[in-house]
Specification:
Citrate Synthase, domain 1, Cytochrome p450-Terp, domain 2, 2 domains, 3-stranded antiparallel beta sheet, globular, binds carboxymethyl coenzyme *A
């Protein structure tokens, strides 16, 4: 019967903690030192010197592009931003109240039906599909948001880079250079993070030799949850609930007493400060001062102080989702778009892992340890009570 119980010995890792499920040369996390590298390059350097487009190229192709290759890649991203007409029409018909992550899931799946490279399974065809997905996700998010707000959609501007163009399509006006740079950094910091739940979901789907679009749809579904990408939106909700820094102590105290989680804290791999949160905190601080609106940052910093004091010894520190929401707030991004924006950034990480894993593919097929009864006689329905 293959009941594992018979073997007497099991190796079981709840939530697959510590399990190495793949070899990868895309990124590495040092969870005790709080370090993150993409293809060997520290994220601090990428945040300072790179762009989302250049970092995407690095993640997908394994090395920084030459000037010529970067220009070609950027051109391709810009050319592929437009949505198929049917998808654009459909976005106008969709109800205004579902969570935008559900809209994103539907629209990415819908766009795949009109992908001219749909049938191409060669490396070149897959790369084209990947770049199209990365290029189209911002358009989907912005178009849906404009439509649900009763505004005309703003077509992509081919003169603008990925980050600036998204803000332009969302707000209908070009962002200034500083806003575009800050948003670009946020995208770089969210672009890749090893075998997190959504990337793993994409890899599981792709390991069956399904298509890249299905893999990305799986990932979007996984990212939506509050324990993963959905945390950023909830952080701002919590800051609003708390209202002012002097109420933070009582809020956190009660939450911990009631065994509720503080969103934006804790991580499976980092047992120290998440290096992405450090950079985002600096920008959150900067923007709070720039707009002379320090309410959120003050509450956030107070929560951080309390959490580190109470749970730091357990390895609970701010993660990427804690300060990103404050940054997005000052960039005028609506709350329920925070997680879609995470998806927009992470799409490249998902795709990079799918491409890497499927080059030496083996279907993912773990087992469950059966703890149910070994034999139960079938009871006819008439005799059941
Ligand atoms: N607030 C309060 N306690 C926490 C928190 C938190 N945010 N996170 C972990 N803990 C406690 C947890 O209660 C447990 O305590 P005990 O051992 O006494 O039962 C201990 O820390 C270990 O928790 P765990 O759930 O076993 O840890 P995990 O590795 O399975 O979960 C996590 C990691 C990120 C899901 C979790 O820390 C969490 O729920 N955080 C809040 C949600 C969040 O911010 N998610 C974003 C994660 S980072 C970006 C991303 O992936 O999208």
């Amino acid at each position: 019967m293959g009941v594992l119980k018979d073997t007497g010995q099991i190796e079981y890792s709840r939530g697959l903690e510590g399990v190495i499920a793949a070899l990868s040369s895309i990124s590495a996390i040092d969870g005790t030192q709080g370090k993150l590298i993409y293809r060997g390059i520290p994220i601090e350097a990428l945040a300072k010197y790179s762009t989302y487009e250049e970092t995407s190229y690095l993640l997908l192709y394994g090395e920084l592009p030459t000037k010529e290759n970067l220009e070609k890649f950027e051109r391709e991203m810009r050319e592929l931003r437009n949505l198929p007409e049917k998808v654009e029409e459909c976005l106008k018909e969709l109800p205004p109240d579902p969570h935008p992550m559900d809209i994103l899931k539907v629209a990415v799946a819908h766009a795949a039906l009109y992908d001219p490279d749909r049938q191409r399974a060669c490396r070149e065809g897959v790369m084209r599909k990947v770049i199209r997905i990365i290029a189209q996700i911002p358009t989907i998010i912005a178009y849906y948001h404009r439509t649900r707000s009763g505004k005309e959609v703003v077509p992509p501007d081919p003169e603008l880079g990925h980050a600036a163009n998204f803000l332009y399509m969302l707000h209908g006006k070009r962002p200034d250079e500083e806003e575009a740079k800050i948003f670009d950094v946020a995208l770089i910091l969210h672009a890749e993070h090893g075998l997190n739940a959504s990337t793993f979901a994409a890899m599981v789907t792709a390991s069956t030799l399904s298509d890249i679009n299905s893999a990305i749809v799986s990932a979007i579904g996984a990212l939506k949850g509050p324990l993963h990408g959905g945390a950023n939106e909830r952080v701002l909700k919590m800051l609003d609930e708390i209202g002012s820094a002097d109420k933070a102590e009582e809020y956190v105290h009660n939450a911990l007493k009631e065994k509720r989680r503080i969103m934006g804290f804790g991580h499976r791999v980092y047992k120290t400060y998440d290096p992405r949160a450090r950079i985002l905190k600096e920008y959150a601080e900067y923007l709070s001062n720039k707009y002379n609106d320090r309410k959120y940052i003050e509450i956030g910093e107070k929560i951080e102080e309390i959490m580190i004091r109470e749970l730091g010894k357990k390895g609970i520190f701010p993660n990427v989702d804690f300060y990103s929401g404050i940054v997005y707030h000052f960039l005028g991004i609506p709350r329920d778009l925070f997680t879609p924006v995470f998806a927009m950034a992470r799409s490249v990480g998902w795709a990079a892992h799918v491409c890497e894993y499927t080059q030496n593919n083996r279907i993912f097929r773990p087992r469950a340890y059966y703890i149910g009864p070994e034999y139960v006689e079938y009871n006819p329905i008439e005799q059941r009570r």
